Amino acid sequence: MTALAILWQRHRLLLGGFLGATLIALFFAARFLLSVLYWSDPAHRNQPLEGWMTIGYIAHSYEVPRDRLIELLDLQPPDNQDRKTRPTLERIARERGQPLDALEKDIEAAIAQLRAEEQVR
Question: Could you tell me the pTM of the whole model?
Answer without folding.
Answer: 0.76
